[in-house]
Amino acid sequence: MKIVTIVGARPQFIKAAPIGRALRQAGHSEFLVHTGQHYDYGMSQVFFAELDIPEPAGNLAVGSGLHGAQTGAMLAGIEQVLIAQRPDWVLVYGDTNSTLAGALAAAKLHLPLAHVEAGLRSYKRTMPEEINRVLTDHVSDLLFCPSRVSVENLAREGLTRGVHVVGDVMADALTYAVERAQSRSSILEQLGLTPHDYLLATVHRAENTDDPARLTGILSAFAQMDELIVFPVHPRTRARMDALGVTVAANVRLIAPLGYLDMVRLEQAARLILTDSGGIQKEAYWLGVPCVTLRDETEWVETVESGWNVLAGDDPAKIVQCVRDSTPLSTRPPLYGDGQAATRVVIALQETILS
Predict the structure, then answer these.
(1) Rounded Cα gap, residues 200 and 341, in angstroms
(2) Residue 107 Ramachandran class (φ > 0 left, ψ -120 to 50 alpha, else beta)
(3) pTM score above 0.90
(4) pLDDT digit string (tens) for 137-155?
(5) Of residues 115, 164, 204, 234, which has the active-site annotation?
């Protein structure tokens, strides 16, 4: 079985790693295409090295840009790869422009398409990620869902064929990374941090970075806290802060983006995490670290229902109050599978060869 896998952003590198290992162990071939959506070392190459992902067979080097131009360039490049490779399956992940471009290219060429992390919905069509995930789900032949909630979301849109609950491949990846991070990461020592004596923050979604009021509201909340906040800054966020002339308070420590092992180690040792990242919301839950989500909604509703995650939006007073009121709970119900999602994905691909 030949698989063409499309990736382009750091969350996709993390998700693709365990499935790539499972494909190789089962004797299948994978042709990995990197669109170049994330392209600098801290956002791209370091993940390949840390997670033992083979070098991409193709790199489109598309880079950043407006949604239309970026997606169009990816679509053209992926189409040429698929024509040349004629795979048994095209595999796409998540909800980025790389996801949508890969899905459209496969659908136009009538190639079997599988979507990992299908069925997620924020029900907020102003989010580019929501458009990407909805369109991808509707042209996919196999829909790999992390939970029953995702299955129910698809059913409401009339999508019931080819739907599989496999769990979340990020749980597979995190299990692998935690073991490595303990021996390979020295980020706490490098930054002089004491475990459970700091907060960890990430802000990268367009709804926060591209709205000056939201971004300044979030940073204002950070300034009102009497705890150290370690803030690895996404390049887009850094550019918006520079454009606005924003400075951060003395308790906020800005650092460059980190590799996955260092980030996992910081997450493990944080007292609490503030984020707008879907992946980090889940990782916080699995690691037993309270999370305050800097959005008005989340696709990962189960983490909120469990009490380990709270939605704070961009209101400074609410963010500060959520952080102050947060206390670890005694129980964490198992969510999003058992860390064997990659194996289930490969079995489903093997059993569902389409002509």
Answers:
(1) 28
(2) alpha
(3) no
(4) 999 999 999 999 999 999 9
(5) 204
